[in-house]
């Protein structure tokens, strides 16, 4: 973390905790009285965790990688086999299918650590992977939930990217013209040709990362269907498009989206590359960031109850996610998760969601109409057109913020 990112207007001393890579969750609470974040208000969070997945001792990690499948059982390690299980628990719930939707089954085997074929630094050779695979009769999916159910306001950051199987394996992939940058030019030329030929094939290097369409990533705080803040990525969308929302964002009676609840945004960096996604949940206000850039601010539907945190990768063949082809897999790579947070003395709800987390997405029927080019929206902190006169501050630490003399600043860089 760099000193020039400190918030200068705070008068108490600031301590930047040293970030270490460890197979166990790290908590630098002994160094800090509170935690602050960038943005219009620093927040005052009393708790902090940093889960680092970049240097996990995998089987055969130090052996030569040539001709070794990084997804083989003797080269990976399930999350359930590591100390991270203390805080994060892979889900195993299933959802039956209907005429519109495929059955889905979450499996612990779909959440594991693997060798990163393109690590950003040599000393960080691993990452956490979530995998979703379309099988003939159902979709095998992945979800992890934070065991804590009493999170009450937080700054949540996840460094992640979506990947194809070829990218995870470090292989090149062959695709048809519709998926290649040269396609549009060649298709236009073919329209003026009288020759009959087979569709052109193109070689993509693995780092071009052509992710199959038909899956959804969800990163969200959750207490109930109407007490939830979301970051969602659809692989059927263009790779710069992301969805931010507070729930509920859909009115089933009128079959329309609720104004002010959700936003579709174009990011400057595609989700096929490494991006730090951030959700700040303050009293009466939600902010979404990507790589430190503020994307959306909302005052509508901000959660008001203690919640948990969920990260999932799924598909059910419906209108919202689209449908993967049989045999296709989508992977979500995660380098680290960081959260500064406050807690409530009582927690309501949390585990055992009766809809498996999919009820809302299914109810709104996946309407992506009017997607267009996306937009960056910084909305007024109020309901409808009402703008609040001031942005609410995060609650003070016990005894008042004046007692926070050793504040640690959260950075998006680790």
Automatic annotation (TrEMBL):
Domain of life: Eukaryota
Biased composition (Basic and acidic residues): 181-193
Membrane-spanning segments: none
Signal peptide interval: 1-21
Entry-linked SUPFAM superfamilies: Concanavalin A-like lectins/glucanases
Any one GO MF annotation of this record: carbohydrate binding
Protein name: Concanavalin A-like lectin/glucanase domain-containing protein
The organism of origin for this protein: Petromyces alliaceus (Aspergillus alliaceus)
């Amino acid at each position: 973390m760099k000193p020039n990112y400190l918030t200068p207007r705070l008068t108490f001393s600031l301590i930047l905790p040293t970030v270490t890579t460890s197979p166990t969750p790290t908590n630098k609470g002994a160094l800090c009285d509170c935690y602050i974040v960038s943005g219009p208000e620093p927040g005052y969070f009393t708790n902090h965790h940093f889960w680092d997945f970049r240097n996990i001792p995998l089987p055969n990690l130090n052996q030569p990688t040539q001709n070794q499948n990084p997804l083989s059982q003797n080269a990976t390690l399930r999350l359930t086999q590591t100390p991270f299980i203390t805080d994060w628990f892979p889900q195993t719930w299933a959802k039956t299918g209907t005429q519109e939707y495929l059955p889905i089954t979450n499996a612990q085997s779909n959440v594991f650590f693997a060798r990163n074929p393109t690590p950003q630094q040599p000393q960080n050779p691993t990452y956490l992977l979530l995998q979703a695979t379309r099988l003939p009769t159902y979709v095998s999916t992945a979800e992890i939930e934070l065991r804590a159910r009493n999170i009450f306001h937080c700054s949540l950051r996840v460094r992640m990217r979506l990947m194809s199987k070829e990218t995870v394996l470090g292989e090149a992939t062959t695709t048809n013209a519709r998926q290649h940058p040269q396609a549009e030019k060649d298709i236009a030329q073919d329209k003026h040709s009288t020759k009959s030929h087979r569709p052109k094939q193109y070689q993509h290097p693995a780092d071009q990362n052509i992710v199959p369409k038909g899956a959804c990533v969800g990163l969200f705080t959750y207490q109930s269907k109407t007490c939830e803040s979301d970051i969602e990525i659809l692989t059927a969308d263009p790779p710069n498009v992301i969805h931010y929302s507070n729930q509920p964002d859909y009115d089933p009676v009128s079959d329309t989206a609720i104004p002010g609840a959700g936003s579709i945004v174009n990011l400057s960096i595609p989700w096929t590359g490494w991006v730090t996604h951030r959700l700040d949940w303050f009293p009466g206000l939600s902010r979404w960031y990507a790589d430190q850039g503020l994307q959306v601010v909302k005052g509508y539907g901000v959660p008001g109850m203690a919640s948990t945190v969920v990260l999932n990768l799924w598909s059910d063949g419906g209108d919202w996610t689209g449908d993967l082809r049989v045999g296709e897999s989508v992977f979500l790579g995660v380098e680290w998760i960081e959260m500064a947070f406050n807690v409530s003395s009582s927690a309501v709800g949390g585990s055992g969601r009766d809809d498996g987390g999919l009820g809302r997405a299914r109810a709104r029927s996946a309407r992506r109409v009017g997607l267009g080019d996306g937009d960056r929206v910084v909305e007024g902190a109020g309901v409808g057109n009402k703008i609040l006169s001031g942005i609410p501050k995060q609650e003070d630490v016990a005894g008042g913020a004046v007692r926070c003399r050793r504040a640690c600043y959260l950075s998006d860089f680790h």
